[in-house]
Write a structure and sequence with these properties.
By secondary structure, the protein is α+β, with helices and mostly antiparallel strands. 32% of the residues lie in helices and 19% in strands. It is built from ten helices and 13 strands. The protein has a five-stranded antiparallel β-sheet with strand order 8-3-5-4-12, sandwiched between helices. It has a three-stranded antiparallel β-sheet with strand order 2-1-13, with no helix packed on it. Strands 9-10-11 form a three-stranded antiparallel β-sheet. The radius of gyration is 25 Å and the shape is globular.
């Protein structure tokens, strides 16, 4: 909360942009760079999308969402690392196991998964967004096995396998003493109550939602970028606030107003544990396969090209320098922060001193 409160204020220091031609001045305060801050992630998101585009395959992709049942949310709230890790493991193994099955597909899929813990009303609702390749690399590595463009696997099969893998992992966490039982999950400290919960969950159909395929590979990570570098709510959804409440947009043109402390509580409920990785890659997208199996899949899916004519050896191309934040901001918004908005001369940047901490002695 302190990082967000101080973001882009004099408390974090900054610079003063000055135009030597017309004396225009504009302060530019430093960002907090906290990954939960709604103001600091746009450029990081753009860089991430640019890097991911390089790993796209020339095939269709599916969007599959795995959701934890409501009965497990109290336990997840007090065991975030353990249950979020289990959610990633159960969902990814479900997809990869079905993909490897020769009766289903017979190829190794590529999967990128992003953890999402909120609804449009900011309530706690852990689920996983997965981008999945529309086919896989066969075990020999010599053939790409495509799947139907209509669907990847039956959702009931996905749900049943995901349920079994998650609950099996939950039993192991219980047996190893890795779970804590507080708040709404306090009753589950009792072995019999925990067993009854598992019995109910085994009898429940778990929701796995497979959305329609993406319009094309170029849209995949641009869509996923909405979830990767944002937590709970963006500034654009905030509509009004005063001492009595905060109003923000929800869905289908509707809005909701929450008392200030309820709004703050709901927002903070989605702060991730320190160091927790909320974007993970599996199968062909896993780091171990990026330079091997993924590259082979890219070669198999790339259209054949004519052999270029022999030429004299040339100097290797110079490495392309990554875009600066100013260049990236210009590309995204059309605003050149290096130029004066009044006369278009280049601005001079001067450092602003940070305020000294108050003497509390």
């Amino acid at each position: 909360m302190r990082a967000i409160e101080l973001c882009r204020t004099l408390a974090l220091g900054g610079h003063l942009d000055v135009c030597p031609h017309c004396d225009f001045e504009r302060p530019a305060y430093n960002s907090c760079r906290n990954r939960h801050c709604p103001k600091c992630q746009s450029l990081a998101q753009a860089r991430w999308i640019e890097q991911r585009q390089e790993r796209l395959l020339a095939t269709h992709y599916f969007h599959v969402v795995f959701t934890l049942p409501a009965e497990l949310r109290p336990l997840a709230r007090h065991n975030r690392v353990e249950l979020f890790d289990l959610l990633f493991a159960a969902a990814s193994r479900t997809l990869l196991e079905l993909g490897d099955d020769p009766e289903r597909l017979g190829g190794r899929l590529g999967v990128t998964a992003v953890l999402h813990t909120w609804t449009r009303q900011l309530t706690f609702h852990p689920h996983l967004h997965c981008v999945v390749t529309g086919g896989g690399l066969d075990p020999t590595g010599q053939c790409w096995v495509p799947c139907s463009r209509r669907y990847i696997f039956p959702v009931k099969v996905l749900g049943a396998l995901f349920r079994g893998k998650f609950l099996d992992g939950l039993r192991r966490l219980r047996r190893d003493g890795s779970l804590e039982y507080h708040g709404g999950a306090a009753a589950l400290a009792d072995e019999a109550a925990f067993g009854r919960l598992l019995d109910r969950l085994y009898e429940t159909d778990w929701v796995v939602y497979a959305k329609r395929p993406f319009a094309g590979p170029e849209h995949v990570f641009r869509y996923l970028g909405r979830y990767t570098h944002r937590v709970a709510i963006s500034n654009q959804r905030l509509q009004a606030f005063d001492d009595r409440g905060v109003r923000f947009a929800t869905k289908d043109g509707k809005s909701i107003t929450l008392p200030p402390f309820v709004f703050i509580h709901r927002f903070l409920d989605h702060v991730l544990p320190a160091g927790f990785t909320k974007i993970r890659h599996f199968g062909l997208h896993a780091a171990a396969n990026v330079n091997t199996k993924l590259e082979q899949a890219q070669r198999l899916l790339s259209p054949p090209t004519a052999e270029p004519p022999a030429e004299a050896p040339t100097e290797p191309a110079a490495a392309v320098e990554p875009a600066t934040w100013q260049e990236l901001l210009l590309e995204l918004t059309g605003v050149d922060v290096t130029r004066c908005p009044l006369c278009d001369h280049r601005l001079i940047r001067r450092r602003l001193p940070r305020p000294r901490p108050r003497d509390t002695s």
